[in-house]
Design goal:
11 strands, Nucleoside Triphosphate Pyrophosphohydrolase, alpha+beta, 4 helices, single chain, three-stranded antiparallel sheet
């Protein structure tokens, strides 16, 4: 990625050239649909990914690093509408602040039984950022290059579920651990775009 910029047109072209893998949930009542935004933005000429750190009072994934998003509401006309609505509710950024670039593959959560439909978006303005303190403790921005330069940053993270300990993919950035479905979504995104863009080495 030359000059560490996000190059939204290039990313949009890459995403539009492939068909996302969707989870076939026909006949399944176990999984609930949700949508998330993988938000890209430029800070000081560096392409970064915006994450939220959830509060300890939310119903699911307390205290974890996540993307803006949430469960599909029956009033939502589409998953994209879900993503934009939830992003606005959580961090105050609306449709006018975000350019949707495309979709990547669905992801599943184990403990909360969601099928997540991720959309990639370019944040064009942070002027209206307003954190919903009931759901979000803080916003964190991480250089996109960290997820490409994974030699020392990606590791396995132990998670206990139903009495069994599993090892899941995780990324470490400063004091934060990005793991679970969020890490898998980032992993998928980098698999799609990483070899097609020239990413610099991460700056911590």
């Amino acid at each position: 990625m030359s000059d560490q910029k996000c190059l939204p047109d290039t990313i949009s072209d890459i995403l539009s050239s492939r068909e996302p893998r969707f989870f076939d949930d026909k006949g399944s009542t176990n999984y609930r649909p949700a949508g998330v935004l993988l938000p890209l933005l430029e800070e000081g000429g560096v392409c970064k990914v915006l994450f939220t750190k959830r509060t300890d009072s939310v119903e699911h994934h307390k205290g974890q690093i996540s993307f803006p998003g949430g469960a599909v509401d029956k009033r939502d006309a589409s998953i994209e509408e879900t993503v934009l609505r939830e992003t606005y509710e959580e961090i105050g950024l609306s449709e006018k602040d975000i350019e949707i670039l495309g979709r990547i593959d669905d992801a599943l959560t184990v403990a909360s039984n969601y099928v997540i439909h991720p959309f990639v978006g370019m944040v064009t303005s942070m002027d209206d950022l307003a954190i919903n303190r009931a759901e979000v403790k803080r916003v964190i921005t991480v250089p996109l290059s960290l997820f490409h330069d994974v030699g020392s940053e990606k590791r396995r993270y132990p998670v206990e579920y139903d009495g069994v300990t599993y090892q899941t993919s995780a990324y470490e950035y400063r004091e934060h651990i990005i793991w679970g479905a969020t890490a898998r979504i980032m992993e998928n995104f980098m698999e799609i775009i990483g070899d097609k863009l020239c990413l610099p080495q991460a700056q911590k």
